[in-house]
TrEMBL record:
Pfam family, one: YceG
Gene Ontology biological-process annotations: cell wall organization; peptidoglycan biosynthetic process
Reaction catalyzed: a peptidoglycan chain = a peptidoglycan chain with N-acetyl-1,6-anhydromuramyl-[peptide] at the reducing end + a peptidoglycan chain with N-acetylglucosamine at the non-reducing end
EC class (word): lyase
Name by which UniProt lists this protein: Endolytic murein transglycosylase
Primary localization: membrane
Organism (species): candidate division WOR-3 bacterium
Residues annotated as site: Important for catalytic activity: 212
Any one GO CC term of the record: plasma membrane
Membrane-spanning residues: 7-26
HAMAP family: MltG
Membrane topology term: Single-pass membrane protein
InterPro entries: MLTG-like
Length: 324
């Protein structure tokens, strides 16, 4: 009798440990996760709910699902209804979603100029996805190729807007939603604004303009300055690209900052950075597609966010000295 009790004790302990393993390591969506609608009839016993989930391909083990509902007090909190659930997730994760109602949503506003890092932080804070999973998905080359992104990361293609996401959600579905909106907006702009510039150049340029500009009417001028510098074989010398290389924002870069060895350091390397440096909004995309035609090659920011533009370096230096 004692041996039998010991056996059941060890079995229970192993089950709990296995469930904890599921909780810690398998509680995120798999990269290939697809959402599907699952109907749970009202007053359905927990055991039958587990059977439904298993039949629909949401979970693999009815036993582990039942154990999860008991350990985490979800037995009496799962109600019947229509649920939007991912396929092939851990039993604990399924329990967690159903415990919340399976369809809790949150509206999140992504402002212009945010990076993937910043977006990931906010999404994790709101319970949508884990930041690490989100960043990993933004650098999934096969996924990016499928979405039509020509860069090794999704930076620049997560269009700023207010989105509604399920809690929790798949990082792949979140990214796809934002990228789809980006291409919808960008293609409409591309059709309405004649431009000989390549898509890659436009999007990278727009991301730099987004970080440089404060006043909307200056966006096309700033875009024009950077294009003028590119065409003359000058370095862009754009401070936001250095900040991106340093992964921090500073009110003013120092001499040491400008020496960082990164392809994003446009004070050190010629040409555009290898990818966009943020996710630009519509106004910056318009500016990059239709830059102002001027002879300006230099500019600096004033305290109110406006910029002073100059055609020559001597003129630029005089105005800088005057500011001091």
């Amino acid at each position: 009798m004692r041996e039998l009790k010991k056996f059941f004790f060890l079995l229970t302990l192993l089950s709990i440990l296995f469930l904890i393993f599921h909780y810690i390591f398998l509680t995120d969506y798999p990269s290939t996760s697809k959402l599907k609608t699952v109907i749970i009839p009202h007053n359905t016993p927990t055991k039958e709910i587990g059977a439904i989930l298993k039949r629909e391909g949401v979970i693999k083990s009815n036993f582990l699902f039942l154990l999860a509902t008991k350990l985490f007090g979800a037995e009496k909190r799962i109600r019947g209804g229509k649920y939007l659930l991912p396929e092939e997730i851990s039993e604990f994760f399924a329990c967690r979603i159903l415990k919340m109602g399976g369809k809790e949503r949150v509206a999140i506003t992504i402002p212009e100029g945010w990076t993937c890092e910043k977006i990931g932080e906010v999404l994790e804070k709101e319970g949508v996805v884990k930041k690490d999973s989100f960043i990993q998905a933004t650098e999934d080359l096969a996924f990016l190729k499928k979405l039509g992104i020509p860069f090794p990361k999704a930076e620049g293609f997560l269009f700023p807007n207010t989105y509604e996401f399920y809690i929790p959600s798949s990082p792949y579905l979140v990214i796809e939603k934002m990228v789809t909106h980006f291409f919808k907006v960008y293609r409409a702009l591309r059709e309405s604004i004649p431009s000989s510039l390549s898509d890659s150049l436009v999007i990278i340029l727009a991301s730099i303009v987004e970080k440089e500009a404060v006043i909307d009417e200056e966006r096309p001028i700033i875009a024009g300055v950077f294009l003028n510098r590119l065409r003359r074989g000058m370095k862009l010398e754009a401070c936001p690209t250095v900040e991106y290389a340093l992964s921090l924002h500073k009110e003013r870069l120092n001499t040491l900052d400008l020496t960082v060895d990164s392809p994003y350091n446009t004070y050190r390397y010629y040409g555009l950075p290898p990818t966009p440096i943020c996710n630009p909004g519509k106004k910056s995309l318009i500016a990059a597609l239709g830059p102002a035609k001027t002879d300006y090659l230099f500019f600096f920011a004033t305290e109110d966010g406006r910029h002073i533009f100059s055609k020559t370096f001597s003129e630029h230096q005089k105005r800088l000295d005057r500011r001091k």
